[in-house]
Write a structure and sequence with these properties.
The chain is an alpha+beta fold. It has one domain: tt1808, chain A, CATH 3.90.1570. The chain is built from 5 helices and 14 strands. The strands form 4 sheets. A 6-stranded mixed β-sheet has the order 4-7-9-10-11-12, sandwiched between helices. The longest helix is centred in the first third of the chain and has 18 residues.
Length: 195
C-alpha cells in the first residue's frame, strides 16, 4: 500500500483525529504530517481477510478483538498507522472506539510500494510498542511470510521466514498456530510487474 503526503501543513494529533473522522479516505499520521493511503489489490484484500478470519476464530473466544485495515494503532505519540490486521486483548482497546493502543499482534501484507517501508520504518516503530509480541509480514506475490517475535528480553526480537505452503507459523505466547495454506487460501499469485 503506497502513501502520498497530503500537504506541507503540519497538524497536531487532535487536528488529525478530527480530520480523519470526517474523511472518506484513510490517512496515516507521523510527526505532524499526514499521508493518504492508497488502494490495494484483490490479493491483498483476500490475504487480509484470510488472516483476520483465522485470527478472529482463535482470539474472539478469548475475549480479544481482531481488526482489519480501517482501525489505526498508536505506535507512538507521533505515529498513527493503519496496520492490515491488529489483534488486541487489552481491556482499554476492547472497549475503545477509534485507536488500538496495546496491540499484541500486527500484520502487514506487502506490496511493491510498501515492502521497504513495512520492513524498515514500520518495523522499527512497531518494536517500540511495549505490548506488541508479534509482527507478521506477508507477501502477496509468493509463499513468503516473515515473523518477528519479541523475546523475554524486551528489546530482543527473533526473526523467522516461511516459504513453503505446508509451513506452520507458531505464536507460542498465545498457544496458536496458522498455516501458510490458511493465509494463502484461494490466492493466485500475480507477478509484481502486472499489479
Amino acid at each position: 500500500m503506497g502513501h502520498a503526503q497530503v500537504s506541507e501543513q503540519k497538524y497536531t494529533v487532535e487536528e488529525y483525529f478530527e480530520m480523519e473522522e470526517k474523511s472518506e479516505i484513510r490517512h496515516e499520521y507521523y510527526d505532524g504530517e499526514i499521508f493518504a493511503m492508497a488502494g490495494t489489490t484483490m490479493n491483498h484484500n483476500d490475504i487480509v481477510d484470510n488472516v483476520r478470519s483465522v485470527m478472529k476464530g482463535v482470539f474472539r473466544p478469548k475475549g480479544c478483538r481482531v481488526f482489519a485495515e480501517n482501525v489505526k494503532v498508536e505506535a507512538s505519540a507521533l505515529y498513527y498507522p493503519y496496520p492490515d490486521v491488529i489483534v488486541t486483548c487489552a481491556p482499554g482497546d476492547i472497549s475503545g472506539t477509534y485507536v488500538v493502543k496495546h496491540p499484541s499482534i500486527l500484520v502487514e501484507v506487502l506490496s511493491k510500494t510498501s515492502a521497504i517501508y513495512d520492513r524498515d520504518f514500520k518495523l522499527r516503530k512497531y518494536k517500540e510498542i511495549p505490548s506488541l509480541q508479534y509482527y507478521l509480514l506477508v507477501s502477496q506475490n509468493e509463499y513468503l511470510v516473515e515473523l518477528y517475535t519479541r523475546t523475554a528480553q524486551e528489546d530482543i526480537w527473533t526473526y523467522q521466514n516461511f516459504e513453503n505452503e505446508n509451513d506452520v507459523i507458531r505464536f507460542e505466547s498465545f498457544n496458536f498456530e496458522m498455516s501458510l495454506k490458511d493465509i494463502y487460501e484461494n490466492i493466485t499469485f500475480v507477478p509484481d510487474e502486472v499489479l
